Amino acid sequence: MLVLKHVSRQFGGLMALQNVEMHLPAGNIIGLIGPNGAGKTTLINCMTGLDHPTSGHIEFNGTPIEKKPAHRITALGMARTYQNIRLFGEMTVLENLVVAQHGLGRATLADSLLQTPRHRREIARLRDNALQLLKRFHLDQSADVVAGNLPYGDQRRLEMARALATNPKLILLDEPTAGMNPVETTELGEQILRMKADGKTLMVVEHDMSLIAQVCDEIYVLNFGQIIAHGTHQEIKNNPVVVEAYLGQEEGA
Ligand SMILES: Nc1ncnc2c1ncn2[C@@H]1O[C@H](COP(=O)(O)OP(=O)(O)OP(=O)(O)O)[C@@H](O)[C@H]1O
Ligand SMILES: [Mg+2]
User: What are phi and psi of 102, to 5 degrees?
Assistant: First the structure.
C-alpha cells in the first residue's frame, strides 16, 4: 500500500529522518514508536504531503507521492489525525465532518447550503454519512456541540471520525490516545481494530505500549531519524537496541 525508499528529511543541520525504509502492507496495522524527537511526526508529515522529504521516494499504491501536495494525497485515499488536535473549533461536531467530506472551506459550505436542490441533496447525504460516523464513535449526542467545547477525549475521537469521513484506504494516527484515560484507550484500540476489519490499512504512532501490543501486526522503531528495529511486538520488546534507545531518553530527561 505504502512504500518508503531511502526517505530523508533535513532541517538545516538536523537529520530528522535518515534513509527510512518502510513498507505498510494493505490490511495491516503498523506501529511506529520511538523516543520524543525521533522523527515520527516528521515521517507522517512527509507521507501526507504536509512536508516533503529532502531525498528519497514514497509510493502510494504504485503512485509516487513525495512531491505531491496534501490535498492530492488525500484524494488518492490517505487520511490522518494530528498529535495536536486540529479541528474547526468554532464549528459544530457535525459540521466538522460534513466539511471534511466535502473538502470545502467554511464560506463555500455556507454558500452551498443556500444553493440548488442538487446541492441540498448532496449536503443531506453528507449529513447522513456524518451522523453514522458520529454514532460509531459515540458522538451522535454531541452532533450540535461546538467542537472546541468537547472534552479532550471526545475531540480525539472526532478527529478519527473526520479522518474516516473521506473514506480513506490508509489512515495515519499520530498519538491517538494522548490525554486519554485507560478505559478510553482500550476502547480506542477496539475502534482501530474495527477499521482494520473494515479493510483499512493503518499506521499508529504511540507511546502507549499496551495499545501498540493490542493492535499492531508489525512495529517499526525510530531513533534519531533512523529505523533501528522492525518486527512483531514480541520481537522488538526485548531487543537490546530498542531498550537502550528508550533508556537513553530517560537518562537525558
Ligand atoms: N519544522 C521543523 N523545523 C526544524 N526542526 C524540526 C521541524 N519539525 C521537527 N523538527 C525537529 O525534528 C526532530 C523530529 O521531530 P518530530 O516532531 O518528528 O519528532 P517525534 O518523534 O514526533 O516526537 P514526539 O514523540 O515528541 O512527538 C526534532 O528534533 C524536532 O525538533
Ligand atoms: Mg510527534
Answer: -80, -20
**Neighbour count for residue 32 (Cβ, 10 Å):** 26
Residues above pLDDT 70, as percent of the chain = 92
pLDDT higher than threshold 60 for residue 56 = yes
Same domain? For 71 and 180 the reply is yes
Residue nearest to atom 17 of ligand 1 (CA): 41
Cα–Cα nearest to 229, from 214, 246, 248, 206? 246
* Total count of domains within the chain: 2
End of a domain among 105, 132, 167? Answer: 167
Residues within 5 A (CB) of ion ligand 2: 40-41, 83
The DSSP H or E segment spanning 148 is: none
Highest mean pLDDT among 22-26, 185-189, 235-239: 22-26
| Per-residue pLDDT at 65 | 98
Cβ 116 under 6 angstroms from ligand 1: no
Domain residues for the domain of 111 are 87-167
Does residue 82 sit within a domain? no
Which of 167, 185, 220 is the endpoint of a domain?
167
Question: For ligand 1, is residue 35 a contact (CB within 6 Å)?
Answer: no
The CATH number linked to 35 is 3.40.50.300
Residue 250, C-alpha cell as written in the block: 530517560
Q: For 228-239, write each residue's pLDDT tens digit.
A: 999 999 999 889
The pLDDT, as a whole number, for residue 107 is: 45
Ligand 1 neighbourhood includes 39 CB (under 6 angstroms): yes
